[in-house]
Amino acid sequence: MPDIDRERAWLLTVDGAPQSYVDLDEPTYLEFEYARRLAHVLDSAADDGAAPLSVLHLGGGALTLPRYVAATRPGSRQDVVEADLPLLDLVAEHLPLPEGSGVAVHGADARDWLAKAPSASVDVLVADVFGGSRVPAHLTSLEYAREARRVLRPGGIYAANLADGSPFAFLRSQLATFAAVFTGLALIAEPAVLRGRRFGNAVLVASDGDIDTAFLARRAAADAFPARVEYGESLARFTGDARPVGDADAVPSPVPPDGAFSVG
Questions:
Q1: Under 8 Å between Cβ of 39 and 65
Q2: pLDDT tens digits for 179-213?
């Protein structure tokens, strides 16, 4: 069940695992590294870093990233899709959005919502959907990736929070799947994760336009826990001989090892 730890400045946990961290007085503060990396992708979108964006968030949590976008890019239009209705009620009660945020929250399945979304309607699509501690299978397939590309405007950016560990069967299959749909691909992750030393998060970035990997690399390297940005030949080597997956053979992300995402 969702729970908010008020002693740690609005830490939201789901089934004992940290899910979101919100500072209502400072919405640009991002506690979790994966959230910062997703924010770097959002910051890289559009020529003017302060220009409003149209963003679709699949997975809501405590609305950390929508709050960030509303604060850094006033006037942005954002839709948040979250299937956990009790979680939405809890967040609305304890962590309400400010008036005029431009954020609309919808209780629905992410894949179902995406199928009905207008084509070429968003600048950035952020996928941060976990059923417990796993990315659901129906959000990992070629069919899903094609729907994501359809909804993005030309040059739009897809960014997904994923989790895996060595030998990276899931992460590599995701790279192969999105490489079959998008012309550009990048991956942001800590070196220890990429080297297989531990299980952890990795942010997949895909676009049919230019991905500003230099910008992302500078931002990721400056974080408290520095990350690398892999793309081009190095990303192709990491992907190896992995094959794209369709709806018929898609699987959820692996179960994290005990303690991988626990609160200390």
A1: yes
A2: 999 999 999 999 999 999 999 999 999 999 999 99
CA dihedral 61, 192, 170, 262 (to 10 degrees): -40
In this prediction the pTM is 0.93
Which residues have CB under 8 Å from 148's CB, separation 6+?
114, 125, 127, 158, 181, 206
Distances (CA, A) of 87 to 12, 32, 62, 263: 10, 19, 8, 19
Of 36, 18, 8, 12, the residue nearest 225 (C-alpha): 36
DSSP string, the chain: -EEEEGGGTSEEEETTEEEEE--TT-TT---SHHHHHHHHHHHHSSSSTTS--EEEEE--TT-HHHHHHHHHSTT-EEEEEES-HHHHHHHHHHSPPPTT--EEEEES-HHHHHHHSPTT-EEEEEE---BTTB--GGGSSHHHHHHHHHHEEEEEEEEEEEEE-TT-HHHHHHHHHHHTT-SEEEEEE-HHHHTTSS-EEEEEEEESS---HHHHHHHHHTSSS--EEEEHHHHHHHHTT-----TTT--PPPPPPTTTT---
Domain 2-34+41-239 belongs to what architecture?
3-Layer(aba) Sandwich (3.40)
Split at pLDDT 50, 70, 90, the class of 260 is low
Angle at 256 between CA 250 and CA 260, to 5 degrees: 150
- Rounded to an integer, what distance in angstroms lies between the CA atom of residue 158 and that of residue 127? 8
| Extents of the domains making up the chain | 2-34+41-239
